[in-house]
């Protein structure tokens, strides 16, 4: 008589499937990585699909705790066509939780196409948005779907190549392991860019009074916002995004416009001095050693992308005034800058 065969069927492990929506921008995606980290901590066995603008996918694929990153076209009619196409493919999947921290018309349209009636309501107008950091904004959205938590910081993933590329480029310019102050001299909008000549003057002040060098960072195409000089390492257009973050991590201080490098510094705990013209510091400036220098013009901040008076309010911020802010906060920065 043959032995009786015994079969054991292992139950499939249940995964919580989460659809996460944040389309843009670079800085907000960095901040949103902290929300994904919260979701992973709450739902240990989860599978998170993050929908973001297609231009960000090559940068952030595999760089957050999201299991899958899907890109869409965000602009014009093509954007809506892209969302309809994506919705058709995603309808084959069942998501247990939908977290929409983009929370605008386009994300509402996408969820409608997906047949999900789970859109949250966030602070849509400038008056309703308030004067607090984006993480408070995100936490209100999370709370509306039953998650009473607020991110503490971004959560990004690095690899050995990031540091290898950084070191290759930095040491090729003659770097000798001296302390660094990094400048991020560009921004997506012209009104949010401090004059390059002001950055040059600030570099002279810092170098003349301290045993440090200045490193410049920026994306390809932003080379015109760089400059050369003794103890200046111009790396604009030379470093991939995550190598730039590691350079900021290596630095004693970041001086930046109100742009994504601020959030890069926040993600790695590097202090920053941030220059504000048309925008509000409270929206982007995190808690900790992060210091705002606001334009002295009475109309600042106006929250406009172009100035009806034809001014660039950031130009009214003088380099010595920026250095005075650095000196005033040197203990919190953690470096003994000299008068």
From TrEMBL:
GO BP annotations listed: lipopolysaccharide core region biosynthetic process
Record-linked CDD domains: GT9_LPS_heptosyltransferase
Keywords: Glycosyltransferase, Transferase
Pfam family, any one: Glyco_transf_9
Keyword check for GTP-binding: no
InterPro entries with a match to the protein in the record: Glyco_trans_9, LPS_LOS_Heptosyltrfase
UniProt keyword Glycosyltransferase present: yes
Cellular component GO terms, alphabetical: cytosol
Record's protein name: Glycosyl transferase family 9
């Amino acid at each position: 008589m043959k032995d009786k065969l015994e079969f054991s069927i292992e139950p499939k492990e249940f995964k919580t499937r989460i659809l996460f929506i944040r389309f843009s921008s670079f800085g907000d995606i960095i901040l949103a990585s902290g929300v994904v980290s919260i979701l992973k901590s709450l739902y240990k066995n989860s599978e998170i699909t993050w929908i973001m603008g297609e231009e960000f996918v090559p940068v952030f694929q595999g760089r957050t705790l999201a299991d899958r990153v899907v890109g869409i076209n965000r602009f014009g009619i093509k954007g809506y066509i892209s969302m309809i196409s994506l919705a058709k493919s995603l309808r084959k999947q069942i998501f247990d939780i939908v977290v929409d921290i983009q929370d605008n018309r386009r994300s509402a349209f996408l969820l409608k196409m997906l047949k999900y009636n789970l859109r949250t309501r966030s602070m849509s107008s400038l008056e309703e948005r308030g004067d607090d950091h984006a993480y408070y904004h995100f936490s209100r959205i999370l709370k509306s779907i039953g998650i009473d938590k607020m991110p503490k910081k971004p959560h990004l993933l690095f690899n050995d190549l990031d540091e290898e590329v950084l070191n290759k480029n930095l040491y090729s310019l003659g770097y000798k392991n001296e302390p660094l102050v990094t400048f991020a001299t560009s921004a997506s909008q012209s009104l949010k860019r401090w004059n390059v000549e002001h950055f040059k003057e600030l570099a002279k002040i810092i170098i003349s009074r301290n045993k440090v060098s200045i490193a410049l960072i920026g994306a390809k195409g932003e080379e015109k916002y760089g400059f050369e000089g003794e103890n200046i390492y111009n790396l604009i257009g030379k470093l991939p995004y995550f190598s730039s973050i590691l350079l900021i991590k290596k630095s004693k201080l970041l001086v930046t416009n109100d742009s994504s490098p601020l959030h890069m510094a926040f993600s790695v705990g590097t202090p920053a001095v941030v220059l504000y013209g048309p925008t509000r510091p409270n929206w982007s400036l995190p808690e900790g050693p992060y210091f705002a220098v606001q334009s002295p013009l009475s109309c600042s901040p106006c929250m406009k992308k172009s100035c009806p008076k034809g001014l660039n309010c950031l130009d009214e911020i003088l380099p010595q005034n920026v250095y005075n802010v650095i000196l005033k906060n040197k203990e919190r920065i953690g470096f003994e800058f000299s008068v």
